[in-house]
Amino acid sequence: MRRRAEGLPLEQVLGWAEFLGLRIAVEPGVFVPRRRTELLAREAIDAARAAAGPEPLVVDLCCGSGAVGAAVLAAVPAAVVHAADIDAAAVRCARRNLPPERVHAGDLGRALPAALRGRVDVLAVNAPYVPTARIPLMPPEARDHEPATALDGGDDGLDLHRRVAAAAPALLAPGGVLLIETSTEQAAGTAAAMTRHGLLPHTTEDPDVAGTVVRGSTR
Q1: Considering the entire predicted model, what is its pTM?
Q2: Which of 122, 160, 158, 128 is nearest to 142 (CA)?
Q3: What is the CA radius of gyration of the chain?
């Protein structure tokens, strides 16, 4: 009660968050998975099931706790799921929710083993997309207790989306898809970044969870 009254997010107090029916381990200082991100997870699950091979290769990039990757693995047990994050606390936490040897530390695609390049069927990304000027307006649970690297998306919130879109074509397998969580107001900018790098964008929204995902297809 004292820790919650001091502003620590409830999920960090409890040590877990509910996500698509799963109990995801969450540690202090780690981004708490949001309900709106369940749309990203559902899109990744559908894409993994539609992949050509029997063991689809899925990457949870900017993984935080690894909630999206864990949801994919629970729904598609044959999937080979890798994850990566630049934040050390997130990597440590994600290794509790995913096979630890498949969670990598580093900056975006550069964190992934070279053997994955050109083979990824589903690249699911929850990169930060809050514009820098809006960080002070966020609830204190987020701005005071979650890492800035998981929140700050630059001046317009799309800095990381542009970098991911630029890196994705070299990571994706033929027929692979890039999925990026964004906001309704930023979806056009996220889609434009994908178009600029040869991907065909399509936006999906789920008002029930206030989720928006832009899908970039290689075909």
Answers
A1: 0.94
A2: 128
A3: 16
**Beta strands 22-25 and 16-19: pairing type?**
antiparallel
**In a 3-state reduction of DSSP, which class is residue 191?**
helix
Dist CA 72 CA 68 (whole Å): 6
The pair of structure tokens assigned to 118 is: 């050109």
Q: Which two tokens stand for residue 173?
A: 């397998």
**Distance of alpha carbon 203 from the chain centroid:** 16
CB-based burial label for 219 (10 Å; 0-12, 13-18, 19+):
exposed
Residues 98 and 73 sit within 8 Å (Cβ to Cβ): yes
4 token code pair = 């919650």
**Which amino acid is residue 47, in one-letter code?**
A
Of 204, 202, 125, nearest to 168 by C-alpha is: 125
- 127-144 pLDDT, tens digit per residue, is 999 999 999 998 888 888
- Rounded Cα distance, 10 and 126, in Å: 21
**Beta 120-125 vs 57-61: how paired, if at all?**
parallel
